[in-house]
Design brief:
6-stranded mixed β-sheet; 6 helices; globular; 21% helix; single chain; alpha+beta; 280 residues; Endo/exonuclease/phosphatase
Length: 280
C-alpha cells in the first residue's frame, strides 16, 4: 500500500497559483498511490488567496476515477448567496471503504486566530485486514488548543480499540455490523515540530493494552533528523521544519518499508510524504 499525505493549502503553490490538477499530477509522479490524504481542501471559498469557487472535494474525486472520496468539513459557513463555503480534509483511496467517520475535534477557547478542526477516518479493507486511515490538520496558533485536539484524537483511538475488544451486537440496516480494528494510520499537518510536547503527548502509551501510535520517520530512519515539511520558502511563521507526519500502530509500523519527504516540490507551502507498507 502506497500512501501520500499532503497539506495542499487549497492547491496554492509558492508561485501563488492555485492549481488542483498540479497536485494530482505531482502525487502521481511520486507514486502509483493507493491512498491520498489531503489537508486544507476548499469548496466555494474565493476569500482564500488566489482561490475561486471551485469545489475541490468534488474535483479531486473526478480526477481520480476508481477512488472513493471521504471528506470532513471543519469550516462550513454561508457564502452570502445561498451557498456554503467549506474547508477541511479529504481521503481518497482505491481500497474498499467499509465505513467512513467524520470527527469534530475539541475546540476550546483561546484569544488567538483559530478555527474548528476535524479528523476524517476511512475503514479500509486490505490483505492485512481492516485498517483505520485517518487524516487531520491541528491548530497552529495555540499549544493549549492543539493539546485539547490531541486528547480528542487519543480518545477516538481508545474507543476504536474498545470497539474491537467488545464488538456491538449485529442488527439490520443501520445497525449492520462493520469492521472494528485498533490498527490505524494517522497522517496530517500536526503544526508541531518533532521536539514539541504535543507530539510526545500524541505518542504516549495508553493504559489497558490500547496500542500506541509511533512516528514512522524514526522507525525507518533511526536518529536521522526529520526533513523540513514547511516554511522552506516562506519563513513568516518560523524557520524550515517538520510539521507533517505519518503515525501508525506498532503492527503496521512493522510493515512500513519506506518513507520519503518530497522537499523539492513547490506546489504547496507544505511538502508531501510518501510511505509504502507491505500488507501482503
Amino acid at each position: 500500500m502506497k500512501l501520500i499525505t499532503w497539506n495542499i493549502q487549497w492547491a496554492r503553490g509558492t508561485d501563488e497559483r492555485v492549481d488542483p490538477h498540479r497536485i494530482i499530477r505531482h502525487a502521481r509522479q511520486m507514486a502509483d498511490f493507493d491512498v491520498l490524504c489531503l489537508q486544507e481542501v476548499a469548496a466555494n471559498f474565493p476569500d482564500l488567496d488566489g482561490n475561486d469557487r471551485t469545489d475541490q472535494f468534488a474535483l479531486f474525486g473526478e480526477l481520480l476515477p476508481g477512488f472513493t472520496a471521504i471528506e470532513a468539513i471543519g469550516v462550513d459557513i454561508p457564502d452570502g448567496e445561498g451557498g456554503r463555503k467549506r474547508f477541511g480534509n479529504l481521503i481518497l483511496t482505491r481500497l474498499p471503504v467499509a465505513q467512513a467517520l467524520r470527527h469534530v475535534l475539541p475546540w476550546e477557547a483561546a484569544a488567538t486566530r483559530n478555527m474548528p478542526r476535524v479528523l476524517v477516518e476511512a475503514m479500509v479493507e486490505t490483505p492485512f485486514g481492516p485498517i483505520r486511515l485517518m487524516t487531520t490538520h491541528l491548530e497552529y496558533s495555540s499549544p493549549a488548543l492543539r493539546a485539547a485536539q490531541i486528547e480528542g484524537i487519543r480518545h477516538l483511538h481508545r474507543m476504536a480499540a474498545a470497539r474491537q475488544a467488545t464488538p456491538r451486537a449485529p442488527g439490520p440496516h443501520t445497525y449492520a455490523p462493520t469492521p472494528n480494528t485498533a490498527s490505524a494510520i494517522l497522517t496530517g499537518d500536526f503544526n508541531m515540530r518533532p521536539d514539541d510536547a504535543g507530539l510526545a503527548q500524541l505518542l504516549a502509551p495508553f493504559p489497558d493494552g490500547v496500542p500506541p501510535l509511533v512516528d514512522l520517520w524514526p522507525v525507518l530512519k533511526g536518529t536521522e533528523p526529520h526533513p523540513p515539511s514547511a516554511f522552506i520558502c516562506d519563513q513568516t511563521y518560523g524557520p524550515p521544519g517538520c510539521l507533517d507526519y505519518v503515525l501508525a500502530t506498532l503492527d503496521l509500523a512493522a510493515r512500513a518499508r519506506s518513507i520519503t519527504y518530497d522537499i523539492e516540490t513547490r506546489a504547496s507551502d507544505h511538502q508531501p510524504i510518501l510511505v509504502e507498507f507491505d500488507l501482503g
